[in-house]
């Protein structure tokens, strides 16, 4: 990842599969103030395209960045979503 974001909240959906990362991200982002950033941690590789597509098709939401890291031998996909 290239930028640092100050997340208002972190949503941990590791171990959840499609469509739950998107469903829970939508629920969490609806509870945030305008301009707040939500950090989403997922293990579902499809979360990259799923959250990207959801953000592109949803007014008032911006996908700021996505990346992946290894944690204890598991790939974790990190997404930063801003409520606009």
From TrEMBL:
Residues of the UPF0033 domain: 11-35
UniProt superkingdom: Archaea
PANTHER family per UniProt: SULFUR CARRIER PROTEIN YEDF-RELATED
UniProt similarity note: Belongs to the sulfur carrier protein TusA family.
Annotated protein name in UniProt: Sulfurtransferase TusA family protein
């Amino acid at each position: 990842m290239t930028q640092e974001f100050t997340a208002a909240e972190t949503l941990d959906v590791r171990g959840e599969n499609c469509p739950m990362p998107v469903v829970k991200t939508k629920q969490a982002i609806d509870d945030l103030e305008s301009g707040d950033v939500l950090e989403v941690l997922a293990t579902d590789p499809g979360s990259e395209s799923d959250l990207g597509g959801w953000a592109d098709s949803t007014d008032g939401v911006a996908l700021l960045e996505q990346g992946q890291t290894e944690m204890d031998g598991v790939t974790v996909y990190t997404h930063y979503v801003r409520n606009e």
